[in-house]
Design brief:
Elements lengths: L6 E6 L1 E2 L7 E9 L9 E7 L2 E10 L4 E5 L2 H7 L6 E8 L21 H7 L4 H8 L3 H12 L4 H16 L4
Antiparallel strand pairs: 1-7, 2-3, 3-6, 4-5, 4-7, 5-6
Helix pairs in contact: 4-5
Length: 170
């Protein structure tokens, strides 16, 4: 039995202002689940008939979610900022939450699922750049993300962290 889609309609491709701004689709009708994963939501997605692996809807900081559309997707569908696309989204059962994650120096740690999910919205080399860091450097980035209490601030830091690895050299 196929679940009902969260949405299936035409949307405008928009772009965050500034250098390196993400291209995205605003989804005001899909509500954030603020109690989990910083308000992010994993979905199965299809854009203009092109099926994607599981993607993560991200919070914009104003209570709405957005669907990031990276360069590889835009190239495949032949669309860019200002174009309309048909987006179809289906819910994904979220993974079990991680508990007892510690980032203290010298202690083994797991990268939280929400961080991995965010990296999966980008080309694979972006996550690989993060994984190539020494453990202490990975830990420093994660401590920086988690040292803020507000979910919107954490989501913003996750975006900044990913942006750093998107634009760094291999």
């Amino acid at each position: 039995m196929t679940p009902n889609p969260l949405t299936s309609k035409k949307y405008l491709l928009e772009k965050f202002p500034g250098k390196g701004g993400w291209t995205y689709i605003a989804l005001p009708e899909i509500k954030q689940e603020k109690d989990k994963y910083f308000g992010m939501l994993q979905v199965h997605a299809e854009i203009d008939g092109y099926r994607l692996p599981v993607k993560t809807l991200m919070p914009k900081g104003d209570g709405t979610l957005f669907f990031p559309v990276n360069a590889a997707i835009r190239k495949t569908i032949g669309k860019g900022e200002g174009d309309y696309v048909h987006l179809k989204l289906f819910p994904v059962t979220p993974p079990a939450e991680k508990t007892n994650v510690t980032f203290s120096t010298g202690t083994p740690f797991e990268i939280p699922e929400e961080i991995i999910a965010c990296f999966k919205t980008e080309p694979p080399e972006v996550y690989k750049r993060f994984l190539r860091l020494k453990t202490d450097k990975q830990r420093q980035w994660l401590q920086w993300v988690y040292e803020v209490r507000q979910e919107d601030a954490r989501a913003e830091r996750i975006l900044k962290m990913i942006d750093n690895f998107q634009h760094s050299t291999p």
